[in-house]
Design brief:
Two copies of one chain form a homodimer. The first copy, chain A, has 123 residues and is mostly helical. Chain A has two domains: 64 residues, Orthogonal Bundle (Arc Repressor Mutant, subunit A); 38 residues, no CATH class. Helix content of chain A is 58%, strand content 7%. Chain A has five helices and two strands; from the N terminus they run αααββαα. In chain A, strands 1-2 form a two-stranded antiparallel ribbon. In chain A, strand 1 and strand 2 form a beta hairpin. Chain A is globular. The two termini of chain A are 16 Å apart. The model of chain A has no long low-confidence stretch (mean pLDDT 94). Chains A and B meet through helix 1, helix 4 and helix 5 of A and helix 1, helix 4 and helix 5 of B. Chain A binds a DNA duplex (30 and 30 nucleotides) through helix 3.
Amino acid sequence: MVIEIDFNSDEAIYVQLMNQIILGIATSRLQEGDTLPSVRQMADTIGINMHTVNKAYTLLKQEGFVSIDRRRGAIVAIDVDKIKTLEEMKENLVVALAKGCCKKVSRSEVHQLIDEIFDEYDL
Amino acid sequence: MVIEIDFNSDEAIYVQLMNQIILGIATSRLQEGDTLPSVRQMADTIGINMHTVNKAYTLLKQEGFVSIDRRRGAIVAIDVDKIKTLEEMKENLVVALAKGCCKKVSRSEVHQLIDEIFDEYDL
DNA sequence: CATTGTGTTACACATATACTAGCACATCTC
DNA sequence: GAGATGTGCTAGTATATGTGTAACACAATG
C-alpha cells in the first residue's frame, strides 16, 4: 500500500500516516491479518524518522486498529468496541455538523454526503 | 451565553471557545445580529488571556461566522458559502467515517447518529 | 554461537505552536 | 477628556512535533 505524506500540511506527519492506514483498512486495501512494514522500513520508504512511524503504530494499537507482534511487526487487527466507537464518532460529528448547520446545510444534504463517502469505501 | 472551558482538555482553549460559539449558533442560543462580549470582557469572564479570545474571534471571522465592527464588537453574521462548507465537511467526515467503518459501524447506524445530533440542535 | 532484524526505550536537540503578559496606538462612546 | 475597544508588537514559558543517535531484549536464521 502506497503512503503519501504532505510535508506542507498543517497536520502532523504521524496523524497523516495514521489516517492513511485507517483509510486503507476502510477501503479494503488493507485487510485483517495483513502486516505493515517495520517502523524502520516504513520510515525509509517515506523519508521520515523511525520514531514518527513508531508513534503512529503505537497510537493505532491503542485505538484498536492493529496489534503488534515482536516477531512479525504490526498486524492489522480490529478491536471492535462499538459503544466506544459511536461515542467518539459523535464527539467528532457534533462540531462538524454544527458548522454545517450554521451555514444552512440541511439534514438531507448531510445524509447525501454520508452516502457519497460510503460509496467511495465500497469500491 | 455561558462559555465553559476545560483546562485539562487536550484541545486548545481558543478551539474550545470557537466550538462553543459555533454550537451556540447551531442551537439558536446565538442568533444572527447578536453581539459577543468584547475580547477583554470575555477573557475576564473565562479567566484567560485577551489574546486567546482575540485569536478565536479572528478565526471565527475568517471562517465566516462573525463580523467584527470596532464600534459594536463581534457580531454573529453567517457568510454562507455552501460549496466550500460541503468540501470542508467532507474532508472532516472522510476520516471520521473511515474509523467507524473499520469498527463495523454500518451506514444506517451513521445515518441514525446524524439524526440524533440534528434533533439536539432543533431544540 | 553470531548475525540480523524486530519493537522498545532513553536522551539530546531544533522548531513550531499555545498561552500568557505587558505595552502602545487609533478609534469610538460617553 | 476619560474610558473602553480592537489591533499590533515584543517577549517569555510550556508543550508538541520531528529528528538523530544509541542501547536493550527478543526472535529468527545462518
